[in-house]
């Protein structure tokens, strides 16, 4: 009996966790300039995909680093920095 319950429990946890991951990506912002000074730098990554596919890839990867801002310098789709910013600081880049 326990052997038949285990696969169901694993499947249920995967189905419950999937929407949470999608919600985490929804609040990720992609910006061209550095975010506010209060933001915490996380990591830098290089995207191996074509230009526009990198946007979705960076947003998806941001959840792995608990980042809500991805900075991609103008003209560079391949290189990006991840930051965790306070909610109000993630809206406007530093001028």
What would the keywords be for this entry?
4-stranded mixed beta sheet, 95 residues, alpha+beta
3D structure, described in words:
By secondary structure, this protein is α+β, with helices and mostly antiparallel strands. Helices cover 37% and strands 20% of the residues. A hairpin with a 7-residue loop joins strand 3 (69-71) and strand 4. Helix 1 crosses helix 2 (53-62). 17% of the residues are buried. Residues 5-24 have low confidence and may be disordered.
SSE layout and pairings?
Layout: H1 2-26, E1 29-31, E2 40-46, H2 53-62, E3 69-71, E4 79-84
Parallel strand pairs: 1-3
Antiparallel strand pairs: 2-4, 3-4
Residues in β-strands, percent = 15-25%
Count of helical stretches? 2
Low-confidence stretches: 5-24
Counting DSSP E segments of at least 2 residues, the number of strands comes to 4
Q: Order of strands across the biggest sheet?
A: 1-3-4-2
* Multimerization state: single chain
Mean pLDDT, nearest integer? 74
SSE arrangement, N to C: HEEHEE
Q: How far apart are the termini?
A: 63 Å
Rg (CA only): 17 Å
Q: Which outline best applies?
A: globular
**What class, by secondary structure content?**
alpha+beta
Q: Let me know the largest β-sheet.
A: 4 strands, mixed
Helix content: 25-40%
